Amino acid sequence: MKKVLIVAQPEDSCSMELLGVAEVFQPCLIQVAIFGDDLKLSKEKWTPWADRILGFEHPQLQWFDTDFAARVLAPVLLEEMPDLILTSRTNPGLELLPVLSGITGFPAFSDCLRVRFEDGDWIADKAEFEGKVIHSFRLPVGEVPICMSVRPGSFQTPAAIQKKAADYQLMSVPDHCPPRREFLELLDSSAEGVDIRKSKRLVAVGRGIEDQEQLEVAESLAKALNAELASTRPLVDQGWLEKSRQVGTSGVTVNPDLYLTVGVSGSFQHMGGIQGKPFIVAINRDPKAPVFNYANVGMVGDLFELVPLLEQEILKLGE
Amino acid sequence: MKVMVCLKQVPDAGEGEAFLQQVGEEVQVACDDWVLNEWDGFAVEAAVHLIEEHGGESMAVSIGDEAVEGVLRRALAMGVDQAWRLQPDSNSADDSMRLAHSLMGAALTWKPDLIICGAMASDSGNGLVPGILAGKLQWPFVALATGLKWDGKSFLVRHEIHQGMESLEKIGAPLVVSAQSGLNQPRYVSIRGIRRVAKREIPMKNMADLSLSPLQNHVELVDLKRRFPPSGAHAEILQGSPQEQISQVIQRMREQGVFTS
After folding, report:
1. What residues does CATH 3.40.50.620 cover in chain A?
2. What is the chain B residue with the closest CA to A190?
3. CB-CB under 8 Å, A279 with B144
4. Of A129, B60, B252, B261, which residue is 20 to 30 A from A111 by alpha carbon distance?
């Protein structure tokens, strides 16, 4: 039977989705590694889903020190040799997964979107060129353990709970593993400035806006719509908009009714910050822009022509 | 202080997607225009800045044939002190474990206090090499740095964790850091700056130069085909003149109740 080991990150709300990947490998033995300074809740959460839970409890894991976690977990992986080692492709996952691969020598696959069994092979898909291309790889399952990170939102937690009542094993943290990262401070980079999470309508700008003066066209539309301006990362990096307006996996998460994108390509790092089911309107000159895979309605064309026209029509409505 | 910065050249995606071509059932990457991976520009700036501030030496490395000299010269023009081109150890040009293995050889030979990489490459989007390199070297690794300082004894690294939150950490050398975009403002490189370094010699280092033995027992993932995702899977693409499209989108927004609140 295949052995799947889920590395559950403490702050990861999507970690249960990793069970959806394990489901593709059924029947399989599911092991879950949990980390923290108090594992009670985490243990309860995973007990119905796993065959075995490996608990790593240590004061250094009060905040998720991925360096520490990788060094205590890697020897266990080398002993257990699971077929698949799964974790979410969150920011901490971007640290943890490759470090595990580097220590163990197991190959790594990053940002998995789909897994399927086809003609006797395990095939996994990932996105490249910011979602413009899907690239498939054959996974050498059974030949060597594979470290895989999974894009949040790509798999669903299986609906039927399999009551396995997992065995719990408290793992010892070796003494020769002194922490190497000293946590000093938690900073909320989006705390200053306008809180766009409160707005029900957002006009989001992306790289289609090529200099700061061009922002005016989107600001003007936002004003007509009584919307707030949201942004993708590059415009914030340029210093054209405040960090508090950045939507995405590294920015704020929003839950509006209307999300109107202007020159936004639609990378998952940006679209991952949109929750709920807003009505999404996309304006982009590239018909293959990934944003059209998320939008309800799309317009392919020049934003400097379409946006002012849209603004005029909205003003006519007297909104 | 010695800072090593790892570079990758990627297809210039600035102008649409002309470099992605449908050939039969596959999409192939056909590119003559290679540029420095965007994240790596932040890594170079961070390396040059740290050396300017605290003294020492910086070096840029990249793995590949002569073509990668272009990105190495760019780093030299930005102020990096020297550059090495590393000979790839096989034809699997993009295998993260092999790339990290070569970089490990460079690190063990040159002995930097800090290695900076871009957080990911804009082509593969993997973000694997910096962490694998750290794991192999058994050095600590911090991803997605948005701030990087040296206090004389340790590095102070600010980096993204989740949902707009960042953490500030203190870590001793040696260390691997990956640069998030926006870590700094990479300095402008003029044509004259590039010309100034055009004749600089860039040594090529092979496995023997780096005292590296070939990677043993490494199983690679098998690269199958690329394809375009189904275009506009969910969006209704509006047709007609711009004015007609606008009328339709207003209508759709009305139907969704956007204007009733």
Report:
1. 2-171
2. B164
3. no
4. B60
